[in-house]
Amino acid sequence: MPATVVVGTQWGDEGKGKLTDLLAKDMDVVVRYQGGHNAGHTVVVGGDRFSLQLVPSGILYPHIIPVIGNGVVVDPGVLLEELATLAQRGVDVSRLKVSGNAHLIMPYHHELDRVTERYLGKHSLGTTKRGIGPAYADKAARVGLRVQDLLDPKIFREKLDIALREKNAVLTKVYNRLPMDATEIAERYLEEFAPKLAPMVADTVGLIHEKLVEGKNVLLEGAQATFLDLDHGTYPFVTSSNPSAGGACTGSGVGPRDINRIIGVAKAYVTRVGAGPFPTECNDEVGDVLVERGHEFGTNTGRRRRTGWFDAVLARQAVRINSTSEIALTKLDVLDPFDTIKVCVAYEADGEKYYYPPYHQSILHKAIPVYEELPGWKSDLSKVTSLAELPSHARRYISFLEEQIGIPVRLVGVGPEREQFVNFVGE
């Protein structure tokens, strides 16, 4: 049975967790394929809010095997704390499987993330300072420690000693920080974390392929989104991995021919957290309304998100990069009070129009959005349960987005609850 990928098409926070949770009832395995605990998923079930960081959204279904894939970077303390919280709320967490090839976030990654951001000053990237970037840097430099190293204390200590020689030199000589103690770190990771994580560690590539051969349904979920992708995002204001659909293959061990459905998740407007270009950003009353109605504050950090009108230029590029087959449009209800709703259909810069993002950052930073205006529906969508109940102007807005991005919108979110989605077939 081919696999399904859920990918964000903007700058994150599109509602991937909610969609993954909605789809999970028909799935057998849900795999998180990249990122770390810098991206939160919020799922609301029966009025109960679950904020997930590392654990795949499918864990809320008892029939699902949730998997943390090899492309994820894992802070074991954060993971165990999250599992304990879920267990206290009655969720069975014993089903979780963690790839032995996933890399560990170490204490020195946290420290390097903090001091580097401080050192950059006004040029900082706006990271969450949770060690994600430094952990991926060590992975690329081939000096990282992996989850499987927790199962071999001798290997763990040897790798840790090698890593700390360089890390302590940088911390003490460049940033004037105190050196970190290898013995203290090893004791915590090997004595506190390893015994609890050991039962979860598995050959997740083998597990996923066994299920595919058995005809089971596999869902691959990413963190962050297309324009935070290390290669395809608004560099350097990106994450340190590949949230785009190609990253689903490398981060899970599933080949392209095993994937037949790629669902792009997009908000009915756009948000981003931290620094970086944002052509449709609204620094006015509109932005304030979007923040207030959309509860646009980070799941993990609590930071206020930047908000703006829907950007079809970005959406077209996301369809290209991900081979997106369809769109799940979330938070349409947030636009309920507006008389007029804008959609960016192109950029203008230096007298030229761009229908896809310009490749050069200098052009993107000065791009001016070209808007089309559509009438608002001025009614409450939160109680809508079918396409027939959607106001005509809301249906027209969705159809206009389909025309602009070239693929169908299949689901429309009209509220935070698990089932507040409407199946949509464009007119």
Describe this structure in words.
This protein is of the alpha/beta class and 427 residues long. The relative contact order is 0.15. It is globular. It contains 12 helices and 20 strands. The protein has helices at 16-23, 76-88, 107-120, 132-141, 153-173, 182-197, 204-213, 245-252, 285-294, 312-322, 361-365, 392-405; strands spanning 3-8, 29-32, 41-45, 48-52, 65-68, 73-74, 97-99, 103-104, 201-202, 218-221, 259-267, 270-272, 306-308, 310-311, 326-330, 340-349, 352-354, 368-375, 409-413, 421-423. Strand 16 (340-349) and strand 17 (352-354) form a beta hairpin. The strands form 5 sheets. A 10-stranded mixed β-sheet has the order 9-7-5-2-10-1-11-15-19-20, with helices on both faces.
| Coarse shape | globular
Query: What's the tally of helices?
Result: 12
Mean pLDDT: 92
Radius of gyration: 22 Å
Helix share, percent = 25-40%
Would you count the extended β strands for me? 20
Placed side by side, the strands forming the largest sheet appear as: 9-7-5-2-10-1-11-15-19-20
Give the biggest sheet: 10 strands, mixed
Straight-line N-to-C gap: 31 Å
SS class: alpha/beta
Ranges with pLDDT <50 over ≥5 residues? none
Beta-sheet strand percentage?
Answer: 15-25%
Brief sketch in words of this structure:
33% of the residues lie in helices and 21% in strands. The protein contains 12 helices and 20 strands.
Kindly list the characteristics that best describe this protein.
427 residues; ten-stranded mixed beta sheet
